[in-house]
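Data deposition worksheet. Section B asks for the primary sequence of the deposited chain exactly as it was used as input, without tags or linkers unless they were present during the calculation. Section C holds the resulting structure in token form. Section D is free text for depositor observations; keep each observation to a single sentence. Incomplete worksheets are returned to the depositor.
Section A, Depositor: J.P.
Section B:
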Amino acid sequence: MSDADLARKMAALQQSISKLRQALEPDTQRPAEGRPPSWEALQDALEELEVAQDELQQQQDELAAAHYLLEAERHRYQESFNYAPDGYLVTDAQGVIQEANRAAAALLHRCQDALVGKSLVLYVAAADRRALRGFLSRLPQQPLLEQAWEVSLQPQPGTPVPVALTVTVARDPQGKITRVRWLLHDITERKRLQELPQQERHLLQVTLASIGDAVIATDLTATLTFLNPVAEALTGWTAQEALGRKAHEVVCLLDEQTRQPLESPVDKVLRKQRVVELANHTLEGE
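Section C:
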């Protein structure tokens, strides 16, 4: 029952109670033996209406509390969605954009409102459009909940932006698609490093390998891309074993006093987007 429906019922009930009270008022002053036979029945009806009014008021209070909690949850979702560091889009099953956060709008060089109602295909580089259209056409028949691949977005205007695309599909109990969520992670820097001339990459690796301190390198998803020999000795992992794993799997730090695991400094750097220092009493775990 909506707030408006409940309010109308409350008003109608209040009106009925008022009319009954007015009808009973003249006979209330009379002795019991002088009251009409219908007086007791009307008095009982009035009491029942007042009980019903109390129950409806309680329902209205509960509905108002639930509405407040729902609005608070919606606001928290909207804040998290809007200010997420990666781009997020919500589309229908045909790829028409219903929601876009700030990061997605920045990637596509459009304001958020301007993206709503547009097809996502328009913002994908021409070379990847056919694959995206094929994915959308197969989506209703596919049972998948999540899929990931790389595409190039085409801002308007602007140059193509490579992104790691993660797609999550939401369905109703009948299996019909209700919405499609698209996570857009900018991998421009990762691509740039991958495309460094071989000589520069070799020189960089030689330099890092010769440093006397342990050195590791990751991409923006905290996946290890380099370990020098000192890091291998310290962690007990060879570069061959470690590359491709998440940093916290290989570099396990413990509190010296409590022996409890500590947050990976790599995860902390990526989360805070700044240089961080290890806490005192930090040990390398096994």
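Section D:
DSSP finds eleven helices and nine strands in the chain.
The mean pLDDT is 79.
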